[in-house]
Structures are given as structure tokens and as C-alpha cells.
Design brief:
This protein is α/β, with parallel strands linked by helices. It is built from 8 helices and 11 strands. Bound molecules: adenine.
Length: 274
């Protein structure tokens, strides 16, 4: 995969040289280029912002430096596999609190792409005409990390590149760890423990020391249900409950959920399990 990031603070992206993503770059699994937006300005002061039309607080990023930066990236696209096969448009991700929500499903979807370009806005954002115009060269997706406001897109890019990059083949040493982690199946991950089995008068749950793999798997699944019901009940209506075992249904029953038409339904408070 090739990733290009455009920012007025290219140093902000330095952590992408570290750890698993840094190693993936060294190993040639990921090509990542960071571009300074100011190199695409033409005035003495290398200006990237101006006052908003219509008035209001803050500054807006000027369109022309963005067009220059994005055109130069589009022109340097990876060659297509064969000459007659047209190159697929790269995805242009514009981090913004006004975008669609980033989640694990979107990370998996974007990990399938050949090329991603991230446009890090600052101030009040980028002139909207850039977003419309960029449609010519890119599939444009404004994406939000969550319902809060950051000072710019760079921190969001660090998070998204890590979430996407670790899904690329060969980046995470043991691909099984991707299967069992939070959000991979729409639930939160079960709690984990390591040695010593007794620590400051706290014991590791006995089932994990039992050697009974069936029991351990069931305990872990039920811990996922309990955690998700407690911490993220909003995830449960989306969970595919159609193939739950009787023991799984009864675990959800104790948490106050019934399975109706293959979906979990919260029982009205106070109702006894069906
Ligand atoms: N830029 C500013 N706030 C953001 C957010 N919540 N997500 C993505 N990019 C942003």
C-alpha cells in the first residue's frame, strides 16, 4: 500500500517511523510519504490560509496550495498492473469532525486500497471547493475520529494509519491476534492475564488455569458479552446473534438481553429472563 499525507506540520507524522508501522515501511509493506503543504505555495510568506467569506471566527485553508499538492500526488500515482488496465482512483481521506465515523469496519475497508491520501486540515478547515474538485482524481471521504474536535487532522491520521496499517498482510506478526481483538466481531475484547497467577491477593480466574480449552473459550466469550453490555451497549443491536448457542443466549439473558429474530433486544428493566 502507498500512503501520502499532506500537512503544514510534517514533523507531526514522525511517530509513523516507529514500532510496527515503521518496521512495515522498512520491510517495504507500506510506502509512506509526508508532504509539506507550504512547498506548494508561491508567495514569499508561503501562505496557506485566509479569512472566511461570510465572516466568522478563524481562518480557512486556501484552495490553490491544496490543488497543487494533490495534483502532484495524483501525477505520481503507482503505475497500473497492466497498460490497458486503468489505475483505480486513490482514496482521499479528509480528517474532519464533520466526516463519517472511523471504525474497525472502515479500517478493514481502507486496508484493501492500493493508495490512500490524507489531507490534514488546520484552522477552520479547507475551502470546500477543494473537496468538490478533488473528486476528479480521487474518491473523497471526509472521516471523523470521533465526536470531539482536534486542532487539525494530524492526530487523526496517526490513529487511522496505525489502525489501517496493522491490517496489511505481514505487518502484525501473528494474524490471529487480529481475529480476537476488540471490534473484530462487533464486541469488546475479553480481559487478559499473565503470570504470576496470584498478585497482591488477586487471583487469575480459575478457569484460565484449568487447561479446558472449551471452557476457556466459553468464559472468554461470555466476558466479551458482559464487558460490551456494561461499557458499550450501543454495539449490541448490531451484533449478529443468530448463531448463538443456548449457553450464549443464557449468558446474554443474565445480562438482560433476549434474542429476537437473530438480534439482541434489551429487556425492559425489571423483567425476568424469558
Ligand atoms: N480534525 C479535527 N477534529 C477531528 C476529528 N474529530 N476527527 C478527524 N479529524 C479531525
Amino acid at each position: 500500500m502507498r500512503i501520502d499525507v499532506v500537512s503544514i506540520f510534517p514533523e507531526y507524522l514522525a511517530p509513523l517511523e516507529l514500532s510496527l508501522i515503521g518496521k512495515a515501511r522498512q520491510d517495504g509493506l507500506l510506502e509512506l510519504n509526508v508532504h509539506d503543504l507550504r512547498t506548494f505555495t508561491t508567495d514569499k510568506h508561503r501562505t496557506v490560509d485566509d479569512t472566511p467569506y461570510g465572516g466568522g471566527a478563524g481562518m480557512v485553508m486556501k484552495p490553490e496550495p491544496w490543488a497543487q499538492a494533490l495534483e502532484s500526488i495524483a501525477a505520481s500515482q503507482m503505475p497500473a498492473n497492466s497498460q490497458d488496465e486503468p489505475t483505480k482512483k486513490p482514496v482521499l481521506i479528509v480528517p474532519s469532525p464533520a466526516g463519517e465515523r472511523f471504525n474497525q469496519a472502515l479500517a478493514y475497508e481502507l486496508a484493501e486500497e492500493e493508495q490512500l491520501v490524507f489531507a490534514c486540515g488546520r484552522y477552520e478547515g479547507i475551502d470546500e471547493r477543494v473537496i468538490e474538485w478533488a473528486d476528479e482524481h480521487f474518491t473523497v471521504r471526509p472521516v471523523s475520529l470521533g465526536d470531539y474536535v482536534l486542532n487539525g487532522g494530524e492526530v487523526a491520521v496517526l490513529a487511522m494509519v496505525e489502525a489501517i496499517g496493522r491490517l496489511l498482510p505481514g505487518v502484525v506478526g501473528n494474524p490471529e491476534s487480529l481475529v480476537e481483538e476488540s471490534h473484530s466481531d462487533g464486541l469488546l475484547e475479553y480481559p487478559v492475564y499473565t503470570k504470576p497467577s496470584s498478585w497482591r491477593d488477586r487471583e487469575v480466574p480459575a478457569v484460565l488455569l484449568s487447561g479446558n480449552h472449551g471452557k476457556i473459550a466459553q468464559w472468554r466469550r461470555h466476558e466479551q458479552y458482559r464487558r460490551t453490555a456494561e461499557r458499550r451497549p450501543d454495539l449490541l443491536p448490531e451484533f449478529d446473534a443468530g448463531r448463538l448457542t443456548r449457553a450464549d443466549r443464557s449468558a446474554f439473558g443474565e445480562l438482560g438481553y433476549d434474542v429476537v429474530d437473530g438480534q439482541l433486544r434489551r429487556r425492559p428493566d425489571g423483567d425476568l429472563p424469558a
